[in-house]
């Protein structure tokens, strides 16, 4: 058992339940017999490089419990891309604070950061245990059945589409179509979650498009036209990372972030929903709406899934358990064992298998037309998300 201090940080975009994982680590860290103080990085790696560490040892039960109902990243976050010249600086700070256990909560870019730090310390003779704790609303992490944060964001999207779909149905004589945009650069896990909103055939959403399936402009227009002819209106959900079959982004985005990824939404000065809305409006003459939630699904604790909160907390606890066992260079992983009763196993996945890569939806989760999820996906997601409400209509059958 290593003797030294513990360091914990949160990186990348938050989720509604990321602080539950933080609470799990803080509450369990006393189980590491060699651990002395527990430090938190303010604003992730940027804070570490600037020595912005705070002592989190001995926090009250009230604070630890309160973290589980607090949105955002309680320690502050960052999207800073670690440079090669930063590695020696990071090691210097770790040595100064005698950090021997390093926990970092985040997505695939975060796992890359942790993997590089853990490997550098190992190769230069500094004894460090590095454990990654998964989180992402995109559900695109390899090595785990699902990611903490996804179910809550999926519930946010489903509730939003259910309620906005009710509005669109009621206003169909004014606006013939609505386009709802979700986050998701490389995968459509959040876009297809909107399908949970549909209880009857005529309910929104009617069409869902996602990055895994390049779109054909004529086919999309035909899908919309067919829906309006059949139902009188059309509600479309689209992932921000969707591309046309000629390889160009639907959003027409060109700006890139620090990780060389295309910037979508406000930061990129473009919008997938607005671009698709403009195409439909121009080609059909129909009036319509577009709706963009941007980062709201990442922080809506009031819509969090109970199972998501519990699993996020357990991932934090398990990270400490694995560290106490001497495991390092790994991320906590959840593997689904059975549907009924719902059972998962907490295990580990090598950081190098998770870093940077984005996990697409499997083909079996997509319908044949490529514009809606399959029943298999809906069964998968319904296990993770709390049941949605039922609303009343006075207009008779749809």
Note the run of SSEs as H and E.
EHEHEHHEHEHEHEHEHEHEEHH
Distance between the termini: 65 Å
CATH topology type of the largest domain:
Rossmann fold
Counting helices, strands and paired strands, the structural category is: alpha/beta
What global shape is seen?
Answer: elongated
CATH top level label of the largest domain: Alpha Beta
Give the averaged pLDDT, no decimals.
94
Helix content: 25-40%
Question: Main sheet, how many strands, which sense, barrel?
Answer: 7 strands, mixed
What's this entry about, in short?
The chain has 398 residues and is of the alpha/beta class. It contains 12 helices and 11 strands.
Folded structure, characterized:
- The protein is built from 12 helices and 11 strands.
- The chain is elongated.
- The protein has helices spanning 18-28, 44-49, 61-67, 86-96, 108-123, 150-170, 189-193, 217-231, 272-284, 306-324, 351-354, 375-382; strands at residues 4-10, 35-41, 53-55, 99-106, 129-134, 177-182, 207-209, 234-239, 288-292, 330-338, 343-350.
- The longest helix has 21 residues, at 150-170.
- β10 (330-338) and β11 form a beta hairpin.
- It starts with a strand and ends in a 16-residue tail after the last helix.
- The chain has a 7-stranded mixed beta sheet with strand order 3-2-1-4-5-10-11, with helices on both faces. A 4-stranded parallel beta sheet has the order 7-8-6-9, sandwiched between helices.
- It has 2 domains: 4-136 and 303-354, Rossmann fold (3-Layer(aba) Sandwich); 150-301 and 360-382, Phosphofructokinase domain (Rossmann fold, 3-Layer(aba) Sandwich).
- By secondary structure, the protein is an alpha/beta fold.
């Amino acid at each position: 058992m290593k003797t030294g201090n513990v360091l914990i940080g949160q990186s990348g975009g938050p989720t509604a339940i990321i602080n539950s994982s933080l609470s799990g680590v803080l509450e369990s860290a006393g189980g590491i017999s060699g651990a002395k103080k527990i430090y938190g990085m303010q604003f992730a790696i940027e804070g570490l490089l600037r020595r912005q560490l705070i002592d989190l040892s001995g926090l009250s039960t009230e604070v630890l419990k309160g973290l589980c109902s607090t949105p955002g990243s309680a320690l502050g976050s960052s999207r800073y891309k670690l440079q090669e010249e930063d590695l020696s600086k990071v090691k210097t700070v770790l040595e100064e604070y005698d950090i021997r256990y390093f926990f970092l909560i985040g997505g695939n870019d975060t796992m890359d950061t942790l993997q590089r730090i853990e490997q550098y310390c190992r190769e230069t003779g500094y004894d460090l245990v590095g454990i990654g704790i998964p989180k992402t609303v995109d559900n695109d992490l390899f090595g785990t059945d699902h990611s903490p944060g996804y179910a809550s964001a999926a519930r946010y999207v489903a509730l939003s589409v259910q309620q906005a779909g009710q509005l669109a149905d009621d206003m169909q004589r004014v606006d013939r179509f609505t386009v709802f945009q979700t986050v998701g650069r490389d995968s459509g896990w959040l876009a297809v979650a909107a399908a949970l909103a549909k209880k009857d055939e005529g309910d929104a959403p009617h069409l869902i498009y996602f990055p895994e399936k390049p779109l054909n402009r004529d086919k999309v227009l035909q899908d919309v036209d067919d829906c309006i002819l059949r139902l009188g209106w059309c509600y479309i959900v689209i992932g921000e990372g969707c591309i046309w079959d000629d390889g160009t982004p639907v959003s027409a985005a060109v700006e890139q972030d620090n990780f060389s990824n295309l910037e979508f939404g406000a930061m990129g000065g473009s919008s997938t929903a607005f671009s698709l809305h403009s195409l439909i409006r121009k080609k059909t003459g129909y009036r319509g709406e577009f709706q963009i939630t941007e980062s709201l699904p990442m922080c809506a604790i009031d819509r969090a899934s109970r199972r998501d909160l519990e699993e996020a907390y357990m991932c934090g606890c398990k990270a400490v358990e694995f560290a106490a066992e001497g495991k390092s260079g790994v991320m906590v992983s959840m593997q689904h064992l059975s549907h009924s009763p719902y059972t998962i196993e907490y295990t580990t996945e090598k950081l190098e298998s998770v870093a940077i890569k984005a996990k697409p939806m499997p083909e079996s989760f997509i319908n044949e037309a490529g514009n809606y999820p399959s029943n298999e996906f809906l069964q998968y997601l319904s296990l993770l998300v709390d049941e949605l409400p039922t609303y009343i209509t006075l207009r008779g059958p749809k």
